[in-house]
Amino acid sequence: MTEVNTPSPMLPPPDAPDARADRRRPRWLTRSGTAVLVLVCLVALSFVVPAQWLGRVVPGHAMIDDPTVAQKPGSARATNARVEISAADVDDPDGAILFTTVALDSTITVFDWLRSEFDDDIVLRPRVEVLGTRSIEENRERNLEMMRVSKDGAVVTALEYLGFDVIDETGVAFESVIDDGPAHEILEPGDVIVAIDGDPVTSVTSLLDILATKVPGDVGVITVDNIDTGEIRDAELTWGENPEREGAFIGIANVVPRQEELPLPFDVSIDSGNIGGPSAGLAFTLTIIDLLTEGDLTGGQNVAVTGTIEPGGNVGNVGGVGQKAAAAHEAGAVAFVVPVESVEIAEEHARDMPIIGVETLEEALDALASLGGDTTDLTLVSG
Question: Which of 93-102, 117-126, 198-207 has the lowest mean pLDDT?
């Protein structure tokens, strides 16, 4: 009988690898690797998955359920290089007026929604509040047109402030005629009043001054120029009694001067690129003044500015001021000049950057002076 030596079932062969070695790897390593992989996938998906999809999981959250847009801090860019003035001497300042923008994102991902929960500079708003019924493209075209009008207004306001005659008032127009008033069925919208009893009317002030001398009940002659037909005619009427001041009453409402642009003394062009909206009006106005005059309006510093510019130099309110304040702070602006109505919201996003509220161009220049700007003698650059 031959004896055969066989290995004990309880012990591995002398040189055989331990078959259980792989099974000795801690299980937490496998679980951790899977968890990390899942986490990476979830993070990656958060950048592409629309937040509205969460509405199916978390119903009732308006910012997820409804079509939404995100307003985020945009940029704060120097206006100096964007304004070109030909046929005139300019003085390039050391500092700069910065015009600010808001970034509008109509595709809200889960990541955007999460960021908005922790970052106060990102605001989610219902799409209808921001765009109304316009598409993104329609909204862009509308904003570009508002920017064009804003740039024209900035040029006119700046040159008027510097003493140039750029607008000629040539009469007074009106939007409506008061029923049963003296001018009822005699004058009509589209008529421009150019004279009363032979005395020229060029502005609202001149119209009121002439009417103050007329006696209610007397008959007068109003000369009008119709903007549609070009016809100039005399209209006879009986003056009414003015319920608010001494003198005569015509019975027209919403009067405005007819304005005609005069040839500019030099060409001013503003390159706004693909940026739209009216909120850079004040910034461009200040920049044109800065370039055409001696000295430096900002005192060699970078000052952010937002606000529309209106006839007469009034500053109008704008939207997205919180996001613009964050952009201005990020760009290193020493201060942010905003419409007075927007001071509070700007301060909430400005960190330690000073906020100055203004209502007029004159107040904006005073604000720059308070920051060290040279605004005392705005003399044109000599050739």
Answer: 117-126
Do residues 284 and 150 make contact, with C-beta atoms less than 8 angstroms apart? yes
Mean model confidence pLDDT for the chain: 84
Angle formed by the axes of helices 361-370 and 281-292, to 10°?
70
DSSP state of 164: -
Mean pLDDT of 39-62: 52
Strands 96-105 and 68-78: antiparallel
pLDDT given for residue 118 in this prediction = 84
**Best mean pLDDT range from 33-47, 64-78, 92-106, 130-144:** 92-106
pTM metric for this prediction = 0.70
* List of residues 6+ apart from 99 with CB closer than 8 A: 76, 77, 79, 279, 280, 283, 284, 304, 305, 306
- CA 165, CA 161: separation in Å to the nearest integer? 10
At CA 228, angle to CA 222 and CA 231, rounded to 5?
Answer: 45
d(CA 170, CA 161): 20
CB 256 within 8 A of CB 204: yes
